[in-house]
Write a structure and sequence with these properties.
Blueprint lengths: L7 H8 L20 H14 L3 E8 L5 E6 L15 E2 L5 H13 L21 H6 L29 H7 L18 H14 L3 H13 L19 E4 L10 E4 L8 H4 L2 E2 L1 H12 L13 H7 L4 E5 L13 E4 L4 E5 L2 E10 L2 E8 L4 E7 L5 H14 L7 H24 L11 H4 L1 E5 L3 E8 L2 E6 L6 E6 L4 E4 L9 E8 L2 E9 L14 E4 L2
Antiparallel strand pairs: 1-2, 1-12, 3-6, 4-5, 7-8, 8-9, 9-10, 10-11, 11-12, 13-14, 13-20, 14-15, 15-16, 16-17, 17-18, 18-19, 19-20
Helix pairs in contact: 2-11, 3-6, 11-12
Length: about 525
């Protein structure tokens, strides 16, 4: 059975709600184990999705946590995943940033509903009226009016951008809806939240997270950024890179590409042993085993309170019996119904890894699923483990459901990709290639350089070292990139021509399946040289 890819958007959605087969591992057949059902669930999913490695944490009030690694860290290598293998938890980091702000609120350094410019005078949105209403709370709840993934090209893939550029970018990024009128997921405002924590605490976001959260929790394996890893016990990254589309073909090793700039929204690396302690603190409403508190019960309630409606439905379907009736984004957490109970969760997607954290306060249970692939396996395991812990009967076939749902999505993706790449659009350059050469600037991203080399146009994205390519004709005054394998999604580069001169450049991702973080479509370049 082939696997299926999951981008950052699908990591959120699937977490909510042709290679050779291999034999079931011994640990998945061990009926004598007191937690044999967990082994069986994980083993069945790993077999169906050909997953190299998974880390699992299960916490239950009054019981020692279940902590276990399965499979290998990296394909082609013998090192095994264990309970201390570090994974990039990606957007599960957002809840840590929210907790950091909650701690500062309790220290009277700020209030959730303070206008942000009270603490960050240099913060500006494109609309001055929005700037005047924008609160600390608004940083965390994805209702700013900015489009999905706005600004992500500054840190996916890694670039030379810094936090000051992010704050400047917000002044020119254009909204797609009214302020507080709907949900659009972003990372950029969590970067601003990290800056706010630094301004108020006198510590960098990394320092604050390490000193005020990771250390008191005893998360000794965890670091606040991939840059800080100092061990070989790190999960590799894997994906199916095609053809015909990413998500098809053989599973291969790929490399991390996220930049440290996005740490406050996606930077923490941790083991399942670490994350179990985080889940236990959540279930204890901020209390530590020694009775000390990281935050109050009131702060916990505030962080779990839905702020922005994400989705609503009529509930379960044949392919997803636990589909939520209502789903909302709180302060770094997603809140929804699951089997009639309140589920608090998040997911995180990076190139080559997807992770899940989830807990049900009323049942006193929590799970974390870390996978070293970019497919749907972690979300399916999460749901199956929650059903197991809740004692749902009869048992639902989450393996079959997850395979079926992701196959439906993948078939649609393959059809869309085939239509878009069947052949280049009609037309070609209307000018000599030298007329397109020059330096162009986008107000939030920075510069690109277009030059003629060996008779062909080439492009270089100055802030993003990985984005260099020959440009191939792709329709009237348009060209496509061919970035190096694993460097990111390719783009269609369209030149605006008036009176025989190039006046600007716009772009879009070549693939209709591109992850939202490749937001080429938000760029609007003007010639500067």
């Amino acid at each position: 059975m082939s696997g299926f890819t999951v981008d950052r958007r699908r990591a959120l959605a699937l977490g909510l709600g042709g290679a050779a087969a291999f034999s079931l591992p011994v640990w998945a057949q061990d009926a004598a184990s007191p937690d044999a059902a967990i082994d069986r669930i994980v083993g069945e999913f790993m077999k169906a999705f050909e997953t190299p490695g998974v880390g699992i944490a299960v916490v239950r009030k009054g019981a020692a946590p279940f902590l276990k690694g399965y499979g290998v860290r990296t394909l082609g290598r013998a090192a095994l995943v264990d309970a201390h293998t570090r994974f990039g938890i990606a957007s599960n980091s957002k809840a840590f940033t929210a907790a950091a702000l909650a701690m500062l609120v309790e220290e009277k350094k700020l209030d959730w509903d303070d206008v942000l410019t009270k603490h960050l005078p240099d913060f500006r949105m494109a609309d001055p009226a929005v700037t005047g209403m924008f609160t600390v709370r608004d940083l965390l709840v994805h209702r700013s009016g900015l489009p999905l993934g706005a600004g992500d090209l500054m840190y996916f893939p890694q670039s030379s951008a810094d936090a000051a550029q992010v704050i400047r970018a917000l002044q020119v990024l254009k909204p797609v809806r009214g302020f507080r009128s709907g949900y659009d997921y972003d990372n950029i405002l969590y970067i601003v939240a990290g800056v706010l924590i630094e301004r108020l605490s006198g510590m960098s976001w990394r320092e604050f997270i390490a000193a005020r959260l990771l250390k008191p929790l005893g998360m000794v394996d965890a670091v606040a950024s991939r840059d800080l890893l100092r061990t070989e016990n790190v999960a590799g990254r894997h994906g199916r890179m095609g053809p015909p589309v990413r998500g098809s073909g053989a599973m291969t090793v790929i490399q991390p590409d996220e930049g440290a700039l996005v740490d406050a929204g996606a930077g923490i690396n941790a083991s399942v042993t670490d994350i179990a302690k985080w889940l236990e603190a959540q279930l204890a409403l901020g209390a530590l085993p020694d009775g000390k508190r990281l935050w109050s019960k009131e702060a916990a309630a505030e962080m779990w309170k839905p702020q922005t409606i994400m989705a609503s439905s009529d509930g379960g379907t044949d392919l997803n019996p636990a589909r939520p009736v209502m789903q909302g984004y709180a302060l770094g957490w997603i809140v929804q119904d699951f089997r009639g109970k309140r589920l608090i969760s998040h997911s995180g997607g990076l190139s080559g890894q997807v992770t899940q954290t989830a807990f049900i306060p009323s049942a006193g249970i929590g799970v974390a699923v870390f996978s070293n692939t970019e497919d749907a396996v972690s979300g399916g395991i999460r749901n199956a483990l929650l059903d197991h812990l809740l004692g749902v009967t009869p048992a639902y076939d989450w393996v079959g459901s997850t395979v079926a749902r992701t196959k439906l999505a993948r078939d649609a993706d393959v059809a869309a990709m085939a239509a878009s790449e069947a052949k280049p659009p009609e037309g070609g350059p209307s000018l000599a290639l030298t007329a397109y050469a020059g330096r162009y600037r986008d107000a939030w991203y920075g510069d690109i350089i277009v030059a003629v080399k060996r008779g062909k146009l080439n492009i270089e994205f100055v802030p993003t070292a990985a984005f260099k390519s020959v440009l191939e004709p792709w329709g009237p005054d348009a060209f496509r990139t061919r970035f190096a394998p694993g460097a990111g999604e390719d783009a269609v580069v369209s030149f605006a021509v008036a009176a025989g001169k190039v006046t600007g450049v716009k772009m879009k991702a070549l693939s209709p399946l591109a992850d939202f973080s490749y937001d080429f479509h938000h760029l609007d370049f003007v010639r500067v040289e």
